[in-house]
Amino acid sequence: MTTRRAALALFALLFAAALCRPAPAAPAPSPAPSPAAKEEAAYALIFGTVWTADNQPAYGVKVRIRRAGQGKGKWEAVSDHRGEFAVRVPAGAADYILQADVKTKAKGPKPEAKVHVDNDERVDVSLHLTE
């Protein structure tokens, strides 16, 4: 009979503990995003291909992009196995300089191209490497 009382006492204790457990707190509601945050910032796309001297796609070439008139590149991309790269730049009319960052035998200027972007358009460009 004592084991039965002990079992009932244990059951009552567990039941009381379950009832006394605090309820989980409801998660705080997240603030509603503002309409400006919902819209993604407008951008233009500079899409390009890097070619070797023998007209083969150049893999792994770092391309630095900067606005014309600025000294240091602000954006970078690396060409993929097809020689292609793509970079988002802010929308709006602007000129950009693209420069392939490669080491050449001759100490000359690095291959570069200049493109003009209007608003949120896509611009295609090719960079041809020399030996």
UniProtKB/TrEMBL annotation:
Q: Source organism's superkingdom?
A: Bacteria
- Cite the PROSITE patterns for this sequence: TAT
* Keyword match Signal: yes
Which Gene Ontology molecular-function terms are recorded? carboxypeptidase activity
Question: How far does the signal peptide extend, from start to end residue?
Answer: 1-25
User: This protein is called what?
Assistant: Carboxypeptidase regulatory-like domain-containing protein
Keyword Signal present in the record's keywords: the answer is: yes
The cross-references to InterPro entries, in alphabetical order and at most eight, read: CarboxyPept-like_regulatory, TAT_signal
Keywords recorded for this protein, A-Z: Carboxypeptidase, Hydrolase, Protease, Signal
